[in-house]
Amino acid sequence: METNKTLDLHEITTENPLKVCFVCLGNICRSPTAEGAFQHLVNREGLSAYIEVDSAGTGAYHVGEPANSKSRMIAERNGVKLQSRARKFEYEDLEYFDLVLAMDSENLDDLKHLDRKQLYRNKLYLMREFDPSPGNMEVPDPYYGGINGFEDVFDMVMRSCEALLDQIRPHIRM
Ligand code: 4NP
For residue 156, how many other CB atoms are within 10 A of its CB? Predict the structure, then answer.
């Protein structure tokens, strides 16, 4: 599968796993969906010892909450269980994770602002930089809209996660 983005990654082993964090605003809709979708793919391929998956929000409005019920319903309909609890993305997360994937450009701007010394720019991406389907680069916030928005989020996030894993796989040393 062709993707828009090429990754420069370290050799991934069980001793040095790849750490991936998906980021949106509230950490209750988009980034938990991305975390669940990517974890699902990682588990399905038996790669959970090689790839660590998490999500967080740039805002703290929903800290401690489970994923939105519509997000969970759409995910479950697609065989994906969303188990995250909302947390805020912190400065230390920039250091800890190897890849930080923002859902929209506002999330990315907030992450760049947090990276005030510009030490971690090469870890920061937009999720849809990996989306093989042409379109805009945003995973739109579905929070105030109808169920279609949540379905669209699931579809664009899942195909982006598949393409992302295609990029990561060659770097895994079994
Ligand atoms: P998310 O969606 O960023 O995809 O989790 C949102 C959830 C809550 C709010 C905004 C976006 N909010 O303003 O409370």
Answer: 23
